[in-house]
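Sequence, please.
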């Protein structure tokens, strides 16, 4: 995230999202498909209150497809319709629009039952930084429409983006704060890019990432870095990757900082395969 979230920022973000929510019929809660639990705002149920909600798992191109399917089931069982999308390439977007429109129908019916003229259903995107809010809005708008800059308080004159004939989307996303307390969650947010490098130690985060990868995708790791057998110790795996890439310091030691940032970058770009870091009921 580009800013530290202090209580004042959080209160302002909450106020702003709640203000914008008054204008819409449906909230699109955008999550990172690789970490659907960790990329949720901790107060989301209170913030959205009774507003109809569509859970959207973005970056599904980077997540394990079978685990994403399990998450979709999990959310559906919890009473939240959910869909997986890839805002980068456009997969799942049509289904997302259809579901949002469906969820907005009762509100529109109620509105018209009061004798008012028909209007389009309205929705907005909410989520923590880096889940892909701007990319999704830009894709839907077909141009650079989303107000970027992850700061609460960026709302200017709102505009609506037409999504088919019945639904429109607020071009300003609701930016909410992530979870802070749990260290495991912080690691997942750092690994996936939701926390900026200035705030975490890449070597520590990389160690955690490699531990996960050794457990979840040892073959991908071994193949990518041509490791004949994975060493038992995580630091040794990292060092072997550094050797493979030739990341040496002047005295001949491995540059562990460079190696760590490189591995994290490779993971974020999907070069280490499609990898989900949490499964329902096992975060
Ligand atoms: P935000 O508004 O919620 O903060 O997120 P934003 O759209 O800025 O997206 C954060 C990062 O995630 C961007 O990468 C963006 O390209 C990437 N992204 C968003 N959606 C998807 C998706 O569905 N699949 C994949 N693979 N990536 C996605 P970045 O490296 O920070 O910037 P850049 O690549 O745009 O330069």
């Amino acid at each position: 995230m580009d800013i530290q979230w202090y209580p004042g920022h959080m209160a302002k973000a909450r106020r702003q999202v709640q203000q914008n929510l008054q204008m819409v019929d449906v909230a699109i809660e955008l999550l990172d498909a690789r970490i659907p639990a960790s990329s949720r705002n901790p107060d989301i149920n209170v913030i959205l209150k009774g507003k109809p909600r569509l859970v959207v798992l973005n970056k599904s191109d980077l997540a394990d497809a079978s685990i994403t399917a399990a998450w979709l089931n999990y959310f559906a069982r919890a009473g939240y319709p959910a869909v997986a999308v890839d805002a980068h390439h456009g997969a799942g977007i049509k289904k997302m629009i259809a579901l949002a429109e469906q969820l907005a129908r009762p509100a529109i019916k109620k509105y018209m039952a009061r004798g008012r003229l028909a209007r389009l259903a309205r929705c907005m995107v909410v989520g923590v930084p880096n889940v892909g809010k701007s990319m999704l809005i830009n894709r839907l708008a077909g141009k650079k429409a989303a107000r970027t800059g992850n700061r609460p308080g960026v709302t200017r004159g709102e505009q609506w983006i037409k999504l088919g004939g019945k639904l429109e989307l607020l071009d300003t996303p609701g930016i909410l704060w992530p979870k802070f307390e749990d260290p495991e969650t912080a690691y997942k947010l750092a690994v996936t890019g939701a926390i900026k490098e200035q705030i975490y130690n890449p070597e520590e985060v990389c160690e955690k990432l490699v531990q996960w990868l050794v457990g979840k995708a040892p073959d991908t790791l071994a193949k990518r870095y041509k490791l004949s057998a994975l060493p038992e110790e995580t630091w040794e795996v990292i060092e072997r990757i550094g050797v493979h890439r030739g990341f040496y310091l002047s005295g001949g030691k491995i540059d562990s900082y460079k190696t760590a940032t490189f591995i994290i970058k490779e993971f974020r770009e999907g070069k280490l395969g499609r990898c989900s870091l949490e499964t329902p009921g096992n975060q």
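The pocket of guanosine-5',3'-tetraphosphate is lined by residues 58-59, 61-62, 86-88, 127, 129-135, 150, 193 (CB under 6 Å).
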